[in-house]
Amino acid sequence: MRPAVRAWVGYGADRAELAQRLSPANYVDARTPPVFSVHGDADPTSPYRYEQQYHARLDRAGVLNELFTVKGGKHGGFTNSQMEQIFDAMNKFLARIPDASSGQTP
User: Fold this and answer.
1) Domain count along the chain
2) What is the pTM of this model?
3) Could you tell me which residues come within 8 angstroms of residue 19 by beta carbon, excluding any fewer than 6 positions away?
4) In this predicted model, what pLDDT tens digit does every residue of 8-30 receive, in sequence order?
5) CA 23 to centroid of chain Cα atoms
6) Staple 63 to which of 4, 24, 36, 58, CB 3.0 to 4.6 Å?
């Protein structure tokens, strides 16, 4: 188990089982709401490949999703330019979500 996960879930005997229960990846199905994620591809805390695996699982379940990759990005601390790119991508993603009240895309 990665040190960051251990620090989050603790050191109890049930820590691996607790980490599995807390992982959103274990609850993906066709009812999962749309997901927009931002992840740096040089993140030393949470490996980028885990986010890629999560989005592959979302794709297989047919969930509307997008992974925005911050090239060279770490675990947050993005530049103003990177944040502008993130917000632009996020707004475009949100525009793709059907309006829940009408079933239509805005």
Assistant:
1) 1
2) 0.81
3) 1, 5, 9
4) 677 777 777 887 888 889 999 99
5) 11
6) 58
Burial 25-62, CB ≥16 within 10 A → b, else e: eeebeeebeebbebbbeebeeeebeebeebbebbeeee
- Torsion angles phi and psi, residue 32, rounded to 5: -65, 130
Assess contact for 35 and 63: CB atoms under 8 A.
yes
Within a domain: 60: yes
For 41, what's the count of Cα atoms within 13 Å in the CB-facing half-sphere?
A: 7
Tell me the C-alpha distance between 47 and 11, whole Å.
21
Residue 72, token pair as written in the block: 């060279």
Residue 105 belongs to a domain: no
Q: Which residue has the tokens 């999560």?
A: 54
What average pLDDT score do residues 87-100 get? Answer: 92
**Local structure of 37: helix, strand or coil:** strand
Six-digit token string for 94:
């949100």
Confirm whether 12 is domain-assigned: no
Query: Does residue 65 belong to any structural domain of this protein?
Result: yes
Question: Quick one: which of 96, 90, 75, 100 has its CA closest to 2?
Answer: 75
Give the domain extent around 69: 34-98
